[in-house]
Specification:
Elements: E1 3-7, H1 11-23, E2 27-31, H2 34-43, E3 48-52, H3 60-70, E4 75-79, H4 82-91, E5 97-100, H5 105-124, E6 132-135, E7 138-141, E8 146-149, E9 152-154, H6 158-169, E10 175-176, H7 177-184, H8 194-207, E11 217-220, E12 224-227
Parallel strand pairs: 1-2, 1-3, 3-4, 4-5
Antiparallel strand pairs: 6-7, 7-8, 8-9, 10-12, 11-12
Helix pairs in contact: 1-5, 2-3, 6-8, 7-8
The structure holds calcium ion (CA).
Residues 9-10, 52, 54-55 line the site of calcium ion.
Amino acid sequence: MSKILIIEDEVAIAELEKDYLELSGFEVFMEHTGDAGLRAALKDGFDLIILDLMLPGIDGFEICRKIREKMNTPIIMVSARKEDIDKIRGLGLGADDYMTKPFSPSELVARVKAHLARYERLVGSGIKANEIIEIRGIKIDKTARRVYVNGEEKAFTTKEFDLLTFLAENPNHVFTKEELFNRIWDMESIGDIATVTVHIKKIREKIELNTSKPQYIETIWGVGYRFKV
Ligand code: CA
C-alpha cells in the first residue's frame, strides 16, 4: 500500500484530502507545520508527498528544496494563490506537479495515482531519472536535451545547447572564447572563435530577461564568459 504524506496547516483541508485518498486505498499521514512535515518527509519513506506552500515554520519552497537534496519522491505542491504556483514553477524546485486550491479531491486522487504509477515505472524499470541541471529559473534536461526557462520550453540548436550546458555545469568558472570553441566545436571545424560570441548572443536571447544585463551568462571583459550562480 502506498504511503502518502500530507503537509498542510489547514486541518480541514488535510482531513478532506486524507479521507479521499484513504477511500482510494492509500495509507495517509498528516503533518500541520513545516518543521514536522520536513522531518517526517525525510525520515519515513513516503511514496508521495502533498505539500502546501504557505506553512507555519519552514515553508513549502524550502521543504521541497530540502527533500530534493536527498530523494526523488514525487511531490505535488499546492497553493491557494495562482501567482505562487507560477513562481514555484519558475524556481524549478523539482516538484512534480502543482495544484491551485481549491481543487476537487477526485482530481487530487487522479494526480496522485498518475505520479505514483510514473514513479514506479521509473524505479521499476531501472531507467535512471533524467539528468537535470537547475539553476534559478533555468532547467536543462541533459537526457532529453531540452531547456526550460521559467517553466517554458525554449528551442536550442545543438551547439547552443552544448555551450549552455557546459557553462552551467561549470558555474562561476571563466572560460575564454578559445576554450569554449575548442570544447564545443569539432576540431575539424577550423573556424572562427567569433562563432562563440554569436552563440552566446543567441543563448542570451532565449534565457535572459534583459540581454543587456545578463543574469546568467556574464561577459568578463577581455577574458571570456562565465555562468553566474
Ligand atoms: Ca497553508
